[in-house]
## 1
Amino acid sequence: MPVTTIAWDDGMIRMIDQTRLPGQLIYLEIRDIPTLAEAIRSLRVRGAPAIGVAAAFGLLLAAEQSTATRPEAFFDELQETAELLRNTRPTAVNLGWALDHMLESVRAARAQGVTAMRTALRQKAMALYKNDQTVNRKLAEYGASLIPDPAEIITHCNTGALATVDYGTALGAVFTAHAQGKKVHVWVDETRPLLQGARLNMWELQHEGIPATLICDNTAAFVMARREISLCIVGADRIAANGDTANKIGTYALALAAKHHGVPFYIAAPCSTIDPAAASGEDIPVEERGADEIVNGFGRRTAPEGARVYAPAFDITPNELITAIITEKGVHTPPFTSSLPSGQKTLD
Ligand code: MRU
């Protein structure tokens, strides 16, 4: 990809405003926490790994701007900022995972004073940034090994470079298969209501020169009935210890259709998306979005005033519908309780 989704740039966060794609490629320059929190909430930056790194950079921003001179006061400020950022999007566990890594590093440096704490935060933020790049390449290799040649692939929501620091997860596997010379064609769910598939996947796939066809989400089952589909591959926002997976609303319906048609259904995500504290999908908080995204999406009213709306941003795909979960550690097959790594505690 010739673009950088997010970067730390001399005291500020530079990121693509994904709400403006595909029409405009605009970079935001974020210099304060309220602006960052708004950017995460309104999906200017989105995708579980990307918002994890955005939050880590947020703590760095808070640390650089803090006037606290005592370690305790400095730490309390950071903790407050971390809690604010943690609550911006409740489902993607990478957000809390990255913040916990940052807080842990600053806690460990407490005895050495504020300057050392700042240095520790800077190092950890950069380590998280690099870690995302390396794990994506690794898991994309594992994912590509499951993609036959030729392949007809269905995907849902954006999981490419825009959803991560670089390259992507599920879409990364497709990029790698394509780079290996495999003949791949992607059926792209448009991903209602905010169209991450139509706006972002199609944009990325076009950049990579990968053949792709856009479909409405409710067309996927019919495509499986009428075409020889090789596999579905999607990302994740949180994976429970038993493999139940939270991902963009519509993933569960896609998995059900895949099961019915005998199409393998893969989840591709870094270990940082595994939440060992969630025993099953029941323990995963599901974010609900405002009605406006459904009834007034992109500035056009599509339902009468006063229409009651239910708008979960994610759904939970039960583990029995998942053929395998791909991480940077390999391809994990059921039973996931014993095959899944227990989350990413340390950075490689
Ligand atoms: O609401 P979004 O766009 O942040 O939802 C994103 C997804 O559901 C992705 O599939 C998931 O975060 C994985 S991104 C590599």
Note: Residues 43, 46-49, 92, 157, 159, 163-164, 169, 196, 235-237, 247-248, 313 surround MRU (CB under 6 Å).
## 2
Amino acid sequence: MPVARPEPSDARVIALIDMDCFYVQVEQRRQPQLRGLPTAVVQYNSWKGGGLIAISYEARKYGVNRSMRGDEAKKLCPEIQLVQVPVARGKADLNLYRNAGSEVVAILARKGRCERASIDEVYLDLTDVAEAMLSENPPEKLEAIDEETLKSHILGLDEEVDKQKGELAREWLCRSNASQQDKLLACGAIIVAELRMQVLRETEFTCSAGIAHNKMLAKLASSMNKPSQQTVVPSSAVKGMLDPLPIKKMKQLGGKLGSSLQSDLGISTVGDLLKFSEEKLQEHYGTNTGTWLWNIARGISGDEVEGRLLPKSHGCGKNFAGPQALKTLASVESWLKDLCEELSERLQSDLDQNKRVAHTLTLHATIYKTNDTDQLKKFPSKSCPLRYGTPKLQEDALKLFNSGLREVLDLQRADIQGTSKSAWVVTHLSVSAGKILAKPSGTHSILRFFHSHESSSSSKEQTYNGIDQNSVPSGGENQVVVNEVEANKKTTINNYVNSSSIQGEQQKETSYHKDTNSILRFFHNRDPSCPSQEQTYNEISQNSMPSVPSGSENQMAADQAEAKKGTMISHVKSNLARGETQKETTQKGSGPILRFFQAQRAPCTSSENAVPSTSGTEHEQESDRVSAHEESQKEKVEINDNMNSLHHDEHRRKRWSLNPEEIDTSVIDELPPEIQREIRVWLQPIKRAKAAQRGPSIADYFSPAKKGPQSHNS
Ligand code: TTP
């Protein structure tokens, strides 16, 4: 459900960076001989040449598109190079692409608040850095604007006048009489062009970008001029940009809501939507959605760039088309095992590297009832609290599947094993882990608090061991506590940040020449046949844009952790000492680039053909659009004044690190009696409330479908 958020009163500068034909670029970096050639990445199965999932811009010129299979693409473009995705556990292994995406995110995060929106898309809030540039080094005072910025497409400028395009852009960027909003966007354009060059220098990947005053407009603009170009959306151009857009192209209008607008109100473009008053839209779609529709028709969107460098969820899935369809529980179980094994590895690595814990396991499937003339029956997505460890994930995923299957087949629990082999077939299975939050620090914080405040705590080691033995829980969500305690053995709050992979990436920042050379020159310089690469870099570096402050970013994560630690301790202190909670919020193509790619074909390439074989019949499709289809709703935890309820607040940042649910009650025995009493009073209502809501154990989530979750009295 879309959420109507008003635009903040101060102008923001938001960019969406979108990698060009991403998987292809990753493969071309691995196999440089493919650069400049029409190339496509295909699913690892090679039935009819494999399904195309990423297509280079050279291949697109031949009409090759994503709906085709390799064989069809070869007919259109006989020289197309088909590269298969890597395979692990009998399915596509996307780690290569995920890691490549992380490289890009680590670079972009140096400049502003950064939200990883999908495997190859990143939102950036550049407001602060653009404001700083405007006050210190406004574009109108710059001696030179770099080539990449001058290639920006500025919506509303007459781009037909090709000869003057660079000049038109320069005039627009450097106008001294421009509005403050436009001046900020001009700074944004300069900053983004430099960032894109930086990404290219460090990763060899090109990307495109949209630069606007909000996320929605930046996203729409980012794909308007690809590859390797950027598009700026001044406020004056918003209407012209939105009016002709088909309604279904708008985010969140691709599905039922968009269809309803078309069928119920005859709206097919965003311009049509403008004809309806806010009241009328509210009448049809409710207050919030009505206002949201009214806003987006006018380019208004207050959605914030969430500071999130890591994916919101982890998912592993597989399609089983045609003869590969799964027909038995045993085959489903076997695949779920593989999927869960992969999921488990990714969860563990997220926990180890980023100190993040996933809380919800979800299973999706697509199933056909074969005894009903092959009818597709919607398999209900099933979720339960997530337990760490491969066997537990496997066990829970299977239970979720069985529970969904019973629903699809209208069966009671006992009947599940008896279903005839031919009663159903499964064509898709996926497991995902969501609700990923920072590793709970409740138990740990309390202990640390008392250790650091009571001189009598002479035996820390002993206390830790005591906790380890006493706190092993049985319920699903309590598993988090086990993980935490285990993790606490190895780590302390003080080294929390040091192990962050993102920080690691930032620390390995290589020294680069702060230049604004064009992408064309970059690639020429990368060409090993071109002499004196170093020399050329140095020459180019003279031509640098004014630098936007950087370098403090590495410190940022450490500062945040310090601040977090301080906040946490002070909360614990005040809560425990005073016994009260605080309510705390807390193609058109760029000429030089195309010329470059053409120039890349001949020299410096190996004749070796590294394209893997495409034989076989398996048919699989897997997409890892990290959070691409998720609505960005950040969960926040708040503890109210009476300490009686726990609820999610979607509008404020989570600043509380201490979640009463995560406190292992065995720890309380370690505390002085008067504090024990206070804490128990504090915890009981919350625990009871949650227990009543969800049931005490994972078993409740697998009750027969039509039976609601049982309620339990503690
Ligand atoms: P996209 O950003 O949609 O496309 P792209 O990067 O290949 O090309 P463009 O330059 O037009 O943005 O997707 C990013 C990657 O995600 C893509 O390279 C491959 C993968 N992907 C799939 O695996 N399956 C899909 O259905 C889509 C759309 C993408």
Note: The chain has a mean pLDDT of 71.
